[in-house]
Hints:
This protein is mainly α. It folds into two domains: 1-35; 38-163. The protein has seven helices and no strands. The protein has helices spanning 2-35, 44-55, 61-70, 76-97, 104-114, 120-129, 157-163. Helix 2 packs across helix 4 and helix 4 packs across helix 5 (104-114). The chain is elongated and about 75 Å long.
Amino acid sequence: MYNDFVMWLIAVWGFIMIGLLAIGGFFMFRKFLKALPREDGWSELDWQEYYIEQALPLWNAEARKLLDELVSPVPQIFRGVAKQKIAGRISKIALDEKVSTIHLDQIIKGYIIATPKRDHGFMKKKLKELNIDYSPYEHLFELADDEKQKFSIFEQTEALKKVE
């Protein structure tokens, strides 16, 4: 009787461990794919870091505080990655628009485009909580990050210019 219980316990523990390893492996593989260089020799993460570094002087305390507030609904374990991705996109938009300081306009554009389509409901809810009108940016929801298409969030610059 006791041996049967221990065998079942080991079997259940084995299935749980295999499941957790599979989940962890999935996320590690996604990160690996983003770190692979593209045709230009730079990976998605390299471009992200480049744009953030270039636009660092454009970020003021108010913009950083708003970015922190916008990513607050993201679970703590993923918040840093989400913040980095959104900040990279905001920085690219600010550099393309040649602004002297990052304002609400660039933050909302980058936030919408860098947020995966599956999270738009949460994003709209957060914007409403902050009393931010996103209706002028409705057209940008089509350019948002789509996990199924697997394109870079930095490839929408031409599309963004056409829409505006």
